[in-house]
Amino acid sequence: MEEAANGTSETAEKPLEDVVQALPSDAVKYLLSLGICVRCIFRVFGVQGRIYASSLSSSIFASIVEVEQGATTDKEVKLCRVCLGILQFRFFNDREILPKNDDDMAVLIADMVKKEGYQVDSFSLEVSIPPIIIENDTSLWSYMKTKYESQPWFQEKLHVGCISIKDALKFSLVYPLENLLDCKSSMSSFRIRLTYNHTRASKGAEKCSDNAEICKKRKTGEFNSVGESTTGSLLENESPDCCKFLLETANEPCHFTYVCYRTPFYFGGRYLKYSRNVSQTRWIIDDERMGESSVEELIGGKILQACQGDSFKFHAAGREDIDVRMLGPGRPFLVEVQNTRHVPSELFVKDIEKMINNTESKLVRVKNLKLVGSHGWNLMREGEAEKQKQYAALVWISRPLKDEDFQCVSSLKDLKVLQRTPIRVLHRRSPLEREKIIHWMKIETIAGSSQYFLLHLCTQAGTYIKEFVHGDLGRTHPSIGSILGCRAEILQLDVTDIKMECFLT
Predict the structure, then answer these.
(1) Neighbour-count burial of 56, counting CB atoms closer than 10 A to its CB (0-12 exposed, 13-18 middle, 19+ buried)
(2) H or E segment to which residue 218 belongs
(3) For the chain, how far is it from start to end, CA to CA, in angstroms?
(4) Distance (Å, rounded) from C-alpha 84 to C-alpha 254?
(5) Rounded Cα gap, residues 308 and 343, in angstroms
(6) Which helix (H) or strand (E) holds 454?
(7) Helix and strand element counts for the chain (H, E)
(8) Which end of the chain is more exposed for a tag (fewer CB within 10 A), N or C?
(9) Is 419 helix (H, G, I), strand (E, B) or coil?
(10) 368-399 pLDDT tens trace
């Protein structure tokens, strides 16, 4: 909340005595007598800023406002009928009701952050409250209108609007948290989330059956906080009976939980794979591991460890088989790391790249590792479906190469190939027929051999290269075998280039 972080309101820096003296004393005394806490009273009158972070109790009015006999005092620590103790920092955990003040709450939250080991350069506070409290807030405004609408100060406050319980709680906690965490509140990737729940369900619909329109708005969520554009219509229609019911004595505080987390960081780059025994992702069949490792683990695992995150997701622009090397400029990839404790800097990312590339196994290598936004996922999908890829294949044919074979193969441009789902992947892929394009091909001879050659080709992404060479029992047509009129087999295959100029080049 920007106002809570900056304290820019007129009342933010005023002395407490001045703020209280500016309030209508008769209304303050009446609200106190109803069992409404000091922070909720300030909210009603639109007070903002650092005053919420002060130690506030009903006694603050004693020397300024003549409190009527029977009003709530410090000796009678009762739960507020509106916020149900949220702004009094009273809550229920799994074992007991804990009375807290704002400093205690801030220390509790800061200790959690430090215990989890987060590196924090800024933070954002999130609050979730039960619907019954929002209804209480709405009813309080309705009740105030019924009692004070003829008074000038109410008309003025009606235009200003009241502060929501969520914002008041943020006003109360942000300032001490900034001091304890030694950083500012802002729109940050690091979030502190406070969640309040209550056993008392929303009862507005039961008691407002005579006002179907109001109940409909509650159910559809047309209004969700006090002070928004729908407040005016609510004040005109809410019934006093409903208000009295919702403001019944509060006997039980909310159940309170708090967590902290960091939104994901995305690392992008290109990887090269030098082994023919490393899969792209972890591959387990019948509890037996296939290959000695995976690109996913060798790269994602290292990034996760360095960032001290909870988990990661690995995604690449297409994939190669376990026995296919990835050479040339490399294949684009993204690693999404969840809830990192460490905030990665540009230098930190370069250190991770060096750590991956300096491993003894030398199975994989990364290039151009950098932090990217979540928009990288869309670019990755583009690379899978729309880009070109180049390959080098070691091919054997059942007869010696002829001079005309070179011209025959190299003359084929943008050749359309129909491929039915290969037999080798039918167990995990739908039996479909796909049209792919072979953009160009050329043959490179191997010295001392007439039946072995290197086939260089550029194809549309998603083309099955092995099947294009041997034909897959006629399921791919045409194929190198059918073009040359002989049997053809592929012995080794490497990816040498992936055309994605728009991403991590």
Answers:
(1) buried
(2) helix 212-220
(3) 39
(4) 7
(5) 10
(6) strand 452-460
(7) 19, 20
(8) C
(9) strand
(10) 999 988 777 776 766 565 688 999 999 999 99
Say which residue the tokens 């650092």 belong to: 50
Q: At what angle do helices 25-33 and 131-148 cross, to 10 degrees?
A: 130
Which uninterrupted H or E stretch holds 39?
helix 38-44
**What string of H, E and C letters represents the secondary structure of 151-207?**
CHHHHHHHHHCCCCHHHHHHHHHHHHHHHHHCCEECCCCEEEEEEEECCCCCCHHHH
Cα–Cα distance for residue pair 108/177, rounded to 1 Å: 10
Residues forming the active site: 321
Residues of the chain by 3-state class (helix, strand, coil), percent to 5: 35, 25, 40
Inter-residue contact 294 to 314 (CB < 8 Å): no
Q: The whole model's pTM is what?
A: 0.77
Dmax (CA) for the chain in angstroms is 111
* Residue 424 · residue 490 · CB < 8 Å: no
DSSP conformational letter for 475 = T
Q: For the segment 178-228, what is each residue's pLDDT rounded down to a tens digit?
A: 999 999 999 989 999 999 998 876 554 444 444 444 444 444 444 333 333
